[in-house]
Write a structure and sequence with these properties.
Elements (H helix, E strand, L loop, with lengths): L10 H20 L13 H12 L9 H4 L2 H16 L1 H11 L6 H10 L8 H31 L2 H14 L19 H16 L1 H12 L1 H4 L9 H25 L11 H14 L15 H13 L12 H15 L6 E2 L2 E2 L2 H28 L4 H12 L14 H27 L18
Antiparallel strand pairs: 1-2
Length: 453
């Protein structure tokens, strides 16, 4: 007789536990004296906070990264960031492939759920492409960063470049340059361009990567119809990304144009690049070239929306995702126009996708609301600062209006839980919706009309 397992976890539970395990191990390592630049152990609550923000690729920090952590501590941070960006399941699968171990159905289901894919076919090849593509992009980013950091920091610039490249690609927003993030490089075109491209590359999603490569190979045959031949997912992700970056950049440019604390004293070119970077980094990256507390109220509200939406699915970014937001907007327009179908780019959106979008949005908003209420009870900070903090944590962004270093222990615990739930909550819920199928033999409840709106 086969023995029954005492604990049987679903694939979604395995993913949740893998993130939790990484955070706990990372926090223990960061709490060791060897991880501290001073040689003295960091309080465990700060080690736990830092491990969570790295694994959840958020970027909020209670202690300045550059002066707090030793080289060992920085290595631990970088490993946690890479794990958080790719996911433990992906990294474990990569090791299995390297060791030439056969991947069973259980492992394939984990990969499918980790990336929220719709098929089990070609998963080994998919993992290989993800790992290889990630290291290629991060490597190129590091080499480009070295053009600036080696002349400025010498040999140390190599390590800074590698760290910053991985952090930017994974949309983590943690750096080891200074205590004010990238504010000293606000008008540096190389740093702005490289960081922006890394953020967009990681946040656009791997599915879009492969679709762009597929279309590029056939570019000569398709000519100007390249975009038309893309999948619906890629069209939505690319269109929404473009709209949010340009729209957000334009809003920041207008609202901050005469703000003496941000853009007023910059040249026109610098105003444009700083505004565009602010629009890109709010999409869950977390690097700052403008102190967020200096933004006008109008810009802060725009930033809240961009942070909450975040990047695209099957990438390193957080938020409710561009495709989710687009589906909900399209659904609203369809309802207003009394249409039964939700249509985007002349294609009907499956009802299952709409249900998942509603579930992800609802879950994220619930996490955000609860976190905001609890943090408001734990601190007497300004309401806008609190909301900015909780949206940043929920969407795993990492931007703050200088509230994070001021948090008390209760406040730190709230943000730790928010970052974790923001990273795994909507994902796990989407997975649950993806796997559940109605049983036709179950008797359904009767339907009754209600009034809405």
């Amino acid at each position: 007789m086969k023995k029954k397992r005492l604990f049987k976890f679903s694939t979604s539970q395995m993913i949740l536990l893998s993130f939790l395990l990484a955070i706990l191990i990372g926090s223990i390592l960061l709490a060791l004296p060897i991880s501290s630049a001073s040689g003295k152990a960091i309080p465990y609550i700060d080690a736990l906070f830092t491990a969570t923000t790295a694994t959840c690729v958020t970027g909020l920090v209670t202690l300045p990264t550059v002066t707090t952590w030793s080289v060992f501590g920085q290595i631990v941070l970088l490993i946690l960031i890479q794990i958080g960006g790719l996911g433990i399941i992906t990294i474990m699968s990569a090791f299995m492939i390297m060791l030439h171990r056969k991947m069973g159905i259980g492992n394939r289901l984990l990969i499918q759920d980790a990336f929220n894919l719709n098929t089990l076919s070609g998963l080994v090849k998919f993992v290989k492409k993800v790992i290889f593509g990630t290291f290629i992009v991060e490597g190129i980013g590091a080499l480009l960063y070295m053009l600036v950091f080696i002349p400025e920091y010498g040999a140390k610039g190599i390590w800074i470049s590698v760290f910053n490249s991985i952090s930017a690609f994974c949309n983590a927003g943690i750096d080891i340059i200074s205590e004010n993030s990238l504010c000293d490089y606000a008008t540096n075109p190389i740093i702005n361009t490289v960081t922006s491209l890394l953020i967009i590359s990681g946040g656009i999603g791997y599915i879009v990567w492969w679709d762009i490569l597929r279309v590029t190979k056939n570019a000569k045959k398709q000519k100007w119809r390249c975009f038309q031949s893309m999948t619906l997912h890629s069209k939505i992700a690319l269109t929404m990304t473009f709209i949010l970056i340009i729209g957000g950049g334009l809003a920041f440019f207008i609202f901050e144009y005469n703000n003496p604390l941000t853009l007023k004293d910059y040249s026109l070119f610098d105003k444009i690049q700083v505004a565009l970077f602010q629009s890109i980094t709010t999409r869950t990256a977390g690097f700052a070239t403008i102190p967020q507390q200096n933004l006008s109220n109008a810009s802060s509200i725009v930033a809240l929306l961009l942070m909450f939406i975040g990047g695209s699915p099957v990438g390193t970014a957080g938020g409710v995702k561009t495709v989710t937001f687009a589906v909900l907007i399209a659904s609203a327009f369809s309802t207003v126009k009394s249409r039964n179908e939700v249509v985007l780019f002349h294609r009907n959106i499956p009802k299952q996708a709409l249900n998942k979008a509603v579930a992800v949005m609802s879950t994220s908003f619930a996490i955000l609301f609860l976190s905001t209420v609890l943090l408001s009870a734990a601190t007497d900070a300004h309401a806008l600062d609190i909301i900015y903090e909780t949206v940043s944590a929920t969407a795993t962004v990492g931007l703050t209006r200088n509230l994070t270093p001021m948090l008390n222990t209760f406040g730190k615990l709230i943000i730790i839980a928010t970052m974790y739930l923001g990273r795994v909550g909507p994902i796990s819920l989407a997975i649950a919706f993806n796997l559940r199928k109605d049983n036709p033999n179950i008797i359904k409840n009767p339907t009754e009309e209600i009034s809405v709106g």
